[in-house]
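Re: export button greyed out
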Amino acid sequence: MPLFTRTPHAPLEYSKTLWMRSWVTAVMLFLYMPLVVLMAFSFNDSKRNVVWRGFTTKYYAKAWENDQLWGAMMNSLTIAAFATIFSLIIGTLAAVMLWRFRFPLKGAVDGTISLPIIVPEICLGVAFLVFFSKVGWPTGFVWPFNLSAIIIAHITFCFPFVAMVVRARLATFNREQEEAAKDLGAGEWQAFRDVLIPHIKPALISGSLLAFTLSLDDFVITFFTSTPGTDTFPVLVYSLVKRGITPDINAASTILILLTVVLTAVALKLQGVKSIAGSH
Amino acid sequence: MDINEFLKAARGRRSLLQGLGVAAVGLTFTSTLAGCSGAAPEKLANGEEGLLNLYNWDDYMGETTLADFKGASGVEVKMDLFENNDTLFAKFRAGNPGYDLIVPSNDFVERMVQADMLMPIDKAQIPNMKNIAPEFIDVDYDKGREYSVPYTWLVLGIGYRKSKVPVAPDSWKVLFDSDQYKGRIAVLSEAGDMFRLYAKYMGKSVNAITPADIKTIEAMMTKQKPNIAKFHSDDGQDMLAKGEVDLVLEYNGDIAQLMSEDDDIAFAVPKEGSQLNSDNFCIPKGAKHPKNAHAFINYILDADVGKKVTDTILYPTPNMAAKALMPASYRDNPAIYPPADVLAKCEYAKFNADLQPLFEEAFTRIAAS
Amino acid sequence: MAEQDWKTSKRTFATVSTGPLFWTLVFFLVPMAFVWFYSFGRNVGLTEIEIVGTLDNYKRATEWLYLSIFLKSLAVAGLVTLICLIIGFPVAMAITFASEKWRPWLLLGIMLPFWTNLLIRTYALMIVLGQQGYVNQGLGAIWGGASWFKTLVGLQPLDTWEPLPLLYNNFAVVLGLVYVHLPFMVLPLYSALDRLDKSLIEASLDLGAGHFRTLMKIVVPLAAPGILAGVMITLIPALGAYLTPDLMGGTDSQMIANVIERQFKRANDWPFGAALSFLLIYAMFALIALQSLRRKTPVDAR
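Workaround output, generated via the alternate export path:
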């Protein structure tokens, strides 16, 4: 076929095929077009995001000076960072526990750990609201500890996602490798660290990206666990719904996107781009 | 795996976690610094620390009001936002999460008083109460203003695009009972408000609905549903602005704001009458800075301050002194201040604990039909 | 792979399990227990709930009105998951087989839109889909062009362009949900495909099977745990979605989560909302338990 003779490639190099490339391009276009619209409208000289009226950067200035917006964004990022780290740890431990061991009531534990995923968010939000108020969780802490209630809530609904992703990856692990390492004299922890973890690394990365996204984006649960001054970005934006989204919110979102790109680039640089997606 | 891969892999995992950790710590550090830069509020003459936690609707405050208040009294106001009364109520149900001043609507003032959530207002601390028009002092939902101080008032009506709606609507029929503008209508998703307005359309009072009426109205709404594009949650003016719909059921303040930007928009209160609302300042029980809260309310009721607020939000105000300072374009705007004969047919809704669940269930049925 | 009995290495088991178990117990089971008790309660006054051990809430929750809404939500969520799977699988494959240089960028590219606030993304999508949005403008331009072409050739021009109703209906809800949930499908798929032994695919191709057949008979069964994880991670949140149907849906698009939200907020009927939520949870619990049983027999590479 003429299409294929133009770019000869090995049978497994699916990425070079035309249909694969066009598919991925189409998907990327679909995903990014609204974002591009959003960023374009952050320069729109109009209070409402309806028609294009002219180019201006005044909304960036407005967003920069908006303390409330910054406070909310800082809160969101901090909560997401802490939630991701702790969910990663707890989720991986849970995945290993379920994958490796047989113990009484295992089915029940498996189901319970997956429960936070399926509980409707509003139900979980109300549950936390009631819990923290009945327990008398102190609310007067200085920042960032006043975010502790929200962070706890986020970890609770993020770690099952991490556990699920890691488990899918663990299912393809060949235990003989671990046993071989042990035969060679590695201790339990060493085997875990040097054999298991590298294998599940793509899952760890996917899992932490997933947890970060979920936490950053969460609205319902954060809303119910927030106290004065702990508004996060989604909660703030949702309460601005009444006026429709104004360009300064678009400006703030654009800044947030750029910030996350920068953070990820930093992480990638520290890690080495290759090893993040390396296969063995 | 050979020894080199072992080492590489081990280093790799460690440095990824390091990377994430550094990023998180870095963030926390810089933000702590930013947070620390704000000095702790000092104690004021009235014995409370100089802080006020306000929970308000969005875009419902003057641009410089909070800063001005800080300059005048030394109290720093932290304002959080909510988007509807139910959200406010749901948050306070399990106890006050730490706010000193809230802004519920009239029927929620009633609800919260019944649920014992509000502190009585000490009128001695609010001399500027004299600026409020007399008809707002003794209202059904809070006789004698024990628990609330009015901030704004609003009326529901029909906002529409003149070029697409040749005959100005003067009745609820066009929204509730006709397929003339099929697919170009948006109405509220608030069950209580919708049932009460239908009652008005049927010629009854908003507070005289019986369960039999609910059945009738439910049938009417189900019949009208195919003509409705959306049950909006207070973003009706946005839909109208974007041209998604040509007629919306909305508050006059929202439409007035839109009218200042778009000449093609108009507003009408139907001849059958409508529902009045009013947003009020209340002090919830458990507020840590009640004296500051009273001081703030008094400040807002001042004529000049009130004028600045109204300049920004353009809602009808119960503050006569502030209204007098506003330009004629605001005072004479029939969208903001409907004529007296129309207003005579508008009523405040009373909170009815028995009917509310029936409204909600019926509305769920309508939405599912 | 054989599982170990926990007794054989108690210390390791203890290290691995204390964290998750403690957290789940204290910060998940206890709060949920409160709400569970509420579902057996009754509203007393406006803020108090009396736990009376009544089943009224559950009886009401199983009425046809609410069951039908639940089934409809399930259908919508299922459709969304299917579409995500069909769209996402080639993307996951493309990432897996991409060169080392491209892979992290492609991964980042898929994840990036989902770090934007959901509300803002939805509004941006609504601008694009609106009556005067870009999709309609684009289609209108094409229509206009076709009409003009027709007049050139001497035929009657087409009728004036009516913008397509792309918003405030079920189509918009499905589109919006697919838009939100796509990366939740791609990531686990990629994670599973990545571990795949490529030599198996090569072998299959060498033996004469076409690409599609190799895909169906080799790749899919081996990636099955990842596909299942992806399906679960997509189906279940889609079932519980409420922002997207609320913003982009029409009068017909009420999903179960919207009803539950209504009970907790506007209707102020927490016991009933709790009962509805728990029925939903029990149903999903059954699904997950089923899946857990299947996982006991992992697919071998043979």
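The longest strand of chain C covers residues 41-44. The button fix ships in the next patch.
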